[in-house]
Amino acid sequence: MSSPSDDRPAVPPDPPTKPADVASRIVEAARLRHPRLHVVFVATLAVLSFVCVLATVVRLSPLPLLPLALFGLGGYAAFRGRSARGDRHLLGWLTVLACAVAVGFWSLAVVGRILE
Question: Which of 12, 79, 94, 112 to pair with 86, CA 20 to 30 A apart?
Answer without folding.
Answer: 12
